[in-house]
Amino acid sequence: MESIGNILDMVLSPALAEEAIEYSKLYKAWNTIVDEAFMGRQAGDEEAVDFAFDDTETKNRVNATKLHDHSKVRELDRQRLVIETDHPGWIQILQFRQRQLLAAAQRKFPALEIKKISFILMKAGGAR
């Protein structure tokens, strides 16, 4: 069976094939981008750590794996990374670290030239 890289090379120009592979990697790397942005963890750190949001009234603890389960990369459109979540509360949590998420995505995928990050709510009954 041919690898996806070989198939893309046959169908697309080499430059487009390389860009398509980068897009594919971006979709798969969302969990590591979240870990890096919220916890300063790099890929390969297996320790399950809670991260805290400082608030003058309360300390909210959210497990990073919950963000993995409730958010995903929807698309990359005109250098804008669109993240889809299944509840408005997850959007708020992600917006809290929007700059860090964008910086982590830019570090991991400089060739994609990601300039913005935005969040949308999954439509009711949407498949995950």
**Main sheet?**
3 strands, mixed
Quaternary organization: single chain
Q: State the helical fraction.
A: 40-55%
Total strand count, please? 5
CATH architecture: 2-Layer Sandwich
Overall pLDDT confidence: 77
Q: So, the CATH homologous superfamily?
A: DnaA, N-terminal domain
From the alpha-carbon coordinates, what is the Rg to the nearest angstrom?
16 Å
Q: N-to-C SSE series?
A: HHHEEHEEHHE
Per DSSP, what share of the residues sits in E-state strands of 2 or more residues? Answer: 15-25%
Write down the domain tally.
1
Number of helices: 6
Cα(first) to Cα(last) distance is 28 Å
The CATH class is identified as Alpha Beta
Order of neighbouring strands in the sheet with most strands: 3-4-5
What does this structure look like?
The chain has 128 residues and is of the alpha+beta class. It has one domain (4-121): GMP Synthetase, Chain A, domain 3, CATH 3.30.300.180. Helices cover 47% and strands 23% of the residues. A three-stranded mixed sheet has the order 3-4-5. A two-stranded antiparallel sheet has the order 1-2. Helix 1 (4-11) runs antiparallel to helix 2, helix 3 (30-39) packs antiparallel against helix 4 and helix 3 (30-39) packs across helix 6. The model is unreliable at 43-53 and 55-61 (pLDDT under 50).
Characteristic terms for this protein:
47% helix; 3-stranded mixed sheet; GMP Synthetase, Chain A, domain 3; globular; single chain; 23% strand
Topology readout:
Layout: H1 4-11, H2 14-28, H3 30-39, E1 50-54, E2 59-63, H4 64-70, E3 71-77, E4 80-85, H5 88-96, H6 98-108, E5 116-121
Parallel strand pairs: 4-5
Antiparallel strand pairs: 1-2, 3-4
Helix pairs in contact: 1-2, 3-4, 3-6
